TrEMBL record:
Keywords: Membrane, Transmembrane, Transmembrane helix. PROSITE patterns: PROKAR_LIPOPROTEIN. The chain crosses the membrane at residues 7-27, 39-55, 67-85. It comes from the Bacteria. This is Stationary phase survival protein SurE. It comes from Mucilaginibacter aquariorum. The keyword Transmembrane helix applies.
Length: 86
């Protein structure tokens, strides 16, 4: 999976897991009482993003790791702004 060392590819990798979490929990499980906390699925997705970051750092792909980190921090900020303050 990690073969190219590219910042934009890392940002793309970092946005995939939170986008899937948003699709699953916003569109499919909207009326479900699956979780009591509204931001929990997104925070789990951010945790999975950090595991993805670890694998790219272990493969010595510094630019890809930086892209994943940028996307993770951006998603964390978005979750905090939109879910915690509503």
């Amino acid at each position: 999976m990690f073969k190219k060392n590219n910042l934009y590819l890392g940002i793309l990798y970092g946005c995939v897991i939170p986008a899937i979490a948003w699709l699953v929990f916003s569109l499919l499980l909207k009326n479900s009482s699956f979780l009591d906390k509204p931001a929990a699925p997104y925070l789990i997705a951010i945790g999975l993003n950090l595991i993805l970051l670890r694998f790219s750092a272990k493969a010595y792909l510094d630019k890809t790791s930086n892209g994943i980190m940028i996307a993770t921090f951006a998603c964390t900020l978005l979750v905090f702004v939109f879910k915690m303050h509503t």
